[in-house]
Amino acid sequence: MKPNLNVTAVSLALAALFTSPALAADAAKPTAPNADAILRQMSSTLVGAREFSFAAHRQIDAALLAGHDLPTDAHVAVTVQHPNKLAARSTSKGDVRDFYFDGRSLTLVDVTKNLYSTVPMRTSLDGLVEELDQKYGFTPPLAELALSNVYADIRWKARSISYQGEGTVGGFFGVGGVACHRLALSGKVLDAELWVGVDDHLPRKLVAAAKTRAGKPQIKVEFSDWNLAAKATAQDFTFVPPKGAMKITMATTAEMTGKHKKH
Amino acid sequence: MKTSLPYSLALLAGATLLFTTSNAGARSYGVSSSSRGRGTEYTSSRGGSAYVGPRGAAAQDANGRSAAVGERGAAYSGPNGAGAVGKNGEYGTYNKNTGATSSGNVNNNAYHSATYSSTSAAYTGANRVAVAGPNAVAVAGPNGVAVAGRSYAPCYPSGYVRAMPPGYSTAYYGGYNCFFVGGVYYRPEFYQGSTVYVVVN
Asked: What is the average per-residue pLDDT within A121-128?
């Protein structure tokens, strides 16, 4: 019987396809994890935890601090209770600063000098970040991780995101660290690498570089002490003035701008 | 349409996710932007503003120092002096403190001119100008302009300081809680998350 040449050719081609060592290896190679999916998972983990707390060690290259009264090195501890409570303490050389937000007001405390100021702030955590910044020109440290949609916030900032591989954060000579996915996030001004825990989907490290500035100065944040089962109470978000504390004014950006123009 | 940026420099305080877009980079310095005509206007929370358009750029800080460059030249004006250069090299400088002025034409040879005083200096070259005052500097060349002012550093209104001398005590003065040291009352305030002091008396 005359063989069907077309069928034979196709069979040979398929055979070659699956028996070629190189092609077979390609077929077996696992595809890289989806960076966007990892970011979504991180966001879901944070947003899904009604209460959580974490700590962070933050370092900022001095070149990025021109114009800001901020320390280059600080330890930050944050406790969050969705949808509208946050407490944070920032400790740096010679300065300790506390933030209390309970959905009704925000209190800023200069612990070192025993000064505090309380302003009305009836809003959610999302509203806190926006209102505080617009009116007073600052936000509590790392408050972005307390937003109701961390993923959307990051994707609004980052033009592109890609997967860079795995790495380990912490540990001692490679032992005992946390296995992480490394995500590259790119913006017009800054690029960053965000390390997200493989198992717990939590942010573990962030290194951001100002690519448009000479020397590409960096911000480094290492996250630690994650607790997604934090048992915060109302007292944790309520400021009680210590003895001798002085109540002072919190100047708005508009007030200070007005004073600038008078001079 | 004005772009409202929901965060600002305190993102840096949080050392937050600053990997972001130009908007986020800008907002970390308290800057917002809006389109104006065919250019873009930038304003900072510290009172500065800048405009970049298809035919030039201009900047002004909160204290009135300004610099501009256009197709026909560049100019700087500050509290202690002013300088300008035209596209063909003509220039002029003025120093408020000394009253000194200079002007001339810069040809395309190696000729250049410079004026100095204790508070400011100006330099003009064949196709560039640089002016430096005590609080700002502006440089304009054939390919662009750069302006920097001290307002980029922590800048508070007159009468504000960011630190007190040591050895203070607390006092109630003028209806406010104050610190007292060296015969001077300092009224503390929070501004942009930092503690600053108004020199009361």
From this structure: 95
Closest-CA distance of chain A to residue B6, Å? 5
> Is residue B134 situated within a structural domain?
yes
* Chain B contact for A127 (CB, 8 A cutoff): no
The answer to whether the CB of A169 falls within 8 A of the CB of A205 is yes
Q: Say whether A136 sits in a helix, a strand or coil.
A: helix
Q: Give the residue from A25, A8, A34 showing the smallest Cα distance to A181.
A: A34
Q: Is residue B51 part of a domain?
A: no
Q: How many domains does chain B have?
A: 3
Helix (H) or strand (E) run with residue A105 in it: strand A105-110
Whether B124 and B66 share a structural domain: yes
Q: Is the pLDDT reported for residue B115 higher than 60?
A: no
- Set of chain A residues whose Cβ sits within 8 Å of the Cβ of B79: none
Rounded to 10 deg, the angle between the A253-262 and A125-136 helix axes is 10
- Which pTM was predicted? 0.63
The pLDDT, as a whole number, for residue B127 is 60
Residues B131 and B91 in one domain: yes
Inspect the interface and report whether the beta carbons of A194 and B191 lie closer than 8 Å.
Answer: no
C-beta neighbour count of B104 within 10 angstroms: 13
Q: What ipTM was assigned to the predicted interfaces of this complex?
A: 0.79
Q: Which amino acid, one-letter code, is at A129?
A: V
Nearest residue in chain A measured CA to CA from B64: A261
**Which pLDDT band, with edges at 50, 70 and 90, does A157 fall under?**
confident
Is the distance from CB of B62 to CB of A260 less than 8 angstroms?
A: yes
Å between A97 CA and nearest CA of chain B: 9
In 3D space, the residue among B104, B149, B21, B4 whose CA is nearest the CA of residue A158 turns out to be B21
Mutate to test the interface with B, among A256, A262, A263 (most CBs of B within 10 A): A256
* Mean pLDDT to the nearest integer, A203-230: 92
The Cα B167–Cα B179 span in angstroms is 10
Partner residue opposite B6 with nearest CB, options A129, A194, A262: A129
Judge: B22–A187 Cβ closer than 8 Å, yes or no. yes
Residue A262 or B4, more confident? A262
pLDDT band at A17 (very low <50, low <70, confident <90, very high): very low
- Encode pLDDT of A71-108 as tens digits: 789 999 999 999 999 999 999 988 999 999 999 999 99
Residue matched to tokens 């109630």: B172
